[in-house]
Write a structure and sequence with these properties.
The protein is α/β, with parallel strands linked by helices and 381 residues long. The protein folds into two domains: 239 residues, NAD(P)-binding Rossmann-like Domain (Rossmann fold); 101 residues, Rhodanese-like domain (Oxidized Rhodanese, domain 1). Helices cover 34% and strands 16% of the residues. It is built from 16 helices and twelve strands. It is elongated and about 80 Å long.
Length: 381
């Protein structure tokens, strides 16, 4: 179908590019893209694809807009806090380009539904922030022979690639055969992220999608693009397909989707047993209110976090300084350690236990749980 006069006006800056033209813009309009995640990466990806005139744009997201999202997730505004991200995103994208078909998948992507959700789309773009969904997306794309436009961000650094074994390149498992142990890699909620970083990486992903739709240029197949915002440097690593890869190798052992939570070592909440190394924020409060118990509470977050929010009377000994300073503590004393959410404090407990401390506990939920359950005056970040 030929472009209408309104479409010609809207896409005129594309049409005068020899690499695009009328034929190329028609290809873009005919393409369908599934964006997994409507958050930091999904925001620039979806907005630029809608503006470019992608014919159908699917969004997979089951989360709600949180106030802390607004620093980087530009699909959503202050008035959207508390709303489903998918609904907020659809309204924003339709205001950018009402001609684009927006299909919402307001559900968690799982091994049970991934193939059904991905199958109708030409290109899949990974805007997720967790390892189970990354491996699930990768495996589903390999099985369905769909390009997987990958991106990830953390603090000031990001990376991007296009995984497409059916086009001769590697898959995500060729680069990362095994996920890191649970808790080893901090999330953005624990480690932070520069607000503009997902914009940069997401725009790279959107660029790769348009190149794939047009069949133009050299896509990031077999290449991993690394970006450091602090140094403003890009680097590139060559990637090779692993012939022993369990999903895209010469003799694949993964021929159907698996349990990705289990693969990544994540125990479902219903199966989490009480951790003997953890105490509640109520127990932490009891210790602070009753010094005669002889339990000392220590904050193991970083100094910048300690400035944002702290519990009165709790000193700071950052996890990053613990290897150099643990001798300041008495291995015979009793200690409760807290961080933001309980991940780093468990690491600190393990470190101290390995160095002879027998009476150390981690405060489950950390200062976030303290703000929720004990003192709402403590800021949440």
């Amino acid at each position: 179908m030929a472009l209408s006069n309104d479409e010609i006006r809207r896409y005129s800056r594309h049409l005068i590019l020899p690499e695009v033209g009328l034929a190329g813009q028609t290809k873009i309009r005919s393409a369908s893209v599934l964006c997994i995640g409507a958050g930091g990466l999904g925001s620039p990806i979806a907005m630029y694809l809608a503006a470019a005139g992608i014919g159908k744009l699917g969004l997979v997201d089951f989360d709600a807009v949180d106030f802390s999202n607004l620093q980087r997730q530009i699909l959503h505004g202050t008035e959207d806090v508390g709303r489903p991200k998918a609904q907020s995103a659809k309204e924003r994208l339709q205001s950018i380009n009402p001609d684009v078909e927006i299909a919402l998948h307001e559900t968690r992507l799982t091994a049970a539904n991934a193939l059904e959700i991905l199958r109708p789309y030409d290109i899949v773009v990974d805007g997720t922030d967790n390892f189970p969904t990354r491996y699930l997306t990768n495996d589903a794309c390999v099985l369905l022979k769909k390009p997987n436009v990958y991106g990830s961000i953390f603090r000031f650094e990001g990376q991007a690639s296009v995984f497409a074994p059916h086009l001769g390149g590697p898959c995500y498992r060729c680069l990362y055969p095994e996920p890191p142990p649970p808790g080893l890699v901090p999330s953005c909620a624990e480690g932070g992220v520069l607000g503009v970083l997902p914009g940069i990486i997401g725009c790279i992903q959107a660029t790769e999608i348009l190149k794939l739709a047009l069949g133009k240029g050299a896509p990031l197949i077999g290449r991993l693009l690394l970006f450091n915002a602090l140094d403003m440097q890009f680097r590139e690593l060559k990637l090779r397909r692993d012939p022993q890869c369990p999903v895209c190798g010469e003799q694949p052992t993964i021929t159907e989707l698996i349990d990705y939570e289990q693969f990544c070592g994540i125990v479902p909440p219903t199966e989490v047993a009480e951790n003997p190394d953890e105490v509640t924020v109520q127990e932490m409060k009891h210790a602070l209110d009753n010094p005669a118990l002889g339990i000392k509470v220590i904050d193991v977050r970083e100094p910048d976090e300690y400035e944002i929010a702290r519990v009165n009377g709790v000193p700071l000994l950052a996890l990053s300084q613990l290897p150099q300073r643990f001798t300041e503590l008495d291995p015979n004393e009793r200690y409760y350690l807290h961080c933001k959410g309980g991940v780093r404090s468990l690491k600190a407990v393990k470190f101290l236990q390995d160095h002879g401390f027998k009476h150390v506990k981690s405060v489950k939920g950390g200062i976030s749980a303290w703000a929720d359950q004990i003192d709402p005056r403590v800021p949440k970040y």
